[in-house]
Amino acid sequence: MTDCPIRHGVNRVVYRAATHVVFVLSLVLFTGAFAKADVAAGQKAFDSGNYEKAMSEWQGAADKGDPEAEFGLGSLYEQGLGGLAQDYKRAGFWYSKAADQGNTEALYRLALIWAAGGVNFPPDLIEAYKWAVLAAKSNGVWGTAGADLESQLDKVLSSSEREAGKDRAAKWTEALTKKNEPAATAATPAPATEPAHSTVKATGCPGWPFPTLPCTQEFPALHGH
Q: Theoretical Cys-Cys bridge with 114: which of 17, 93, 128, 200, CB 3.0 to 4.6 Å?
């Protein structure tokens, strides 16, 4: 009995398809490994005070969608480190991308910068409350910090403002859930556009959105307005 040409053709197609899948998976793993290496190198540079190198390392990984690198870039822009202008709009851009991927510290930092406001970034306590509510739902230190911030904002917001903040939080959660649904059932979101660079240099205490207050990670007690 001679071999069937059709069987040989099918085998070749299956082999090529399998080879293609292996190649794609290998490329994804290879790229992911490099991104993680960039994140680690960026964190090491940041911890040693080499903020320019941290920026360089994190940028590439953030462009590939790594949430830790996205958060790192947000920190650099928030604090105005590495020769960057202190820019809450760009910090918010990167923090939001990290928050979309489950970074709970990014939720907390978003609440802080919206509560404070800055140059070309008007404060919005309802938006701050939204992010505090979302942070408070998580476990760990940032969930605790978010809950504390939420209680501080409770004291200065009206009941209607608090409800508006909770409504924004619910809509963000709903939108994120739809975004993470399989492509077949969810609409493709429009690509995010990174804000333009700010030309204003950082002043005051870097790392904390209230430039007149001492450096701290804790949200200060607020008084009614």
A: 128
User: Which residue has 């790229």 as its token pair?
Assistant: 31
Token pair recorded at residue 97: 């991308």
For the chain, what is the largest distance between any 2 Cα atoms, rounded to a whole number of angstroms?
Answer: 92
Going by C-alpha positions, the residue among 210, 214, 220, 217 that lies closest to residue 108 is: 217
**Given this model, what pLDDT does residue 210 score?**
45
Look at residue 5 and tell me whether its pLDDT is greater than 50. yes
98 to each of 91, 95, 103, 184, how far by Cα in Å? 11, 5, 5, 24
Q: 8: which 2 tokens?
A: 């040989």
Residue 75, CB-side half-sphere exposure with 13 Å CA sphere: 22
| CA distances, 143 to each of 57, 70, 106, 129, 153 (Å) | 28, 20, 11, 14, 15
At 180, the pLDDT band (50, 70, 90 cuts) reads confident
Closest CA to 146 of 186, 119, 178, 114: 114
Cβ count near 155 (within 10 Å) = 10
Alpha carbon of residue 8 to chain centroid = 50
CB 35 within 8 A of CB 61: yes
Among 74, 112, 114, residue whose Cα is nearest residue 94: 74
pLDDT in tens, 143-172: 999 999 999 999 999 999 999 999 999 999
Six-digit token string for 138: 């998580």
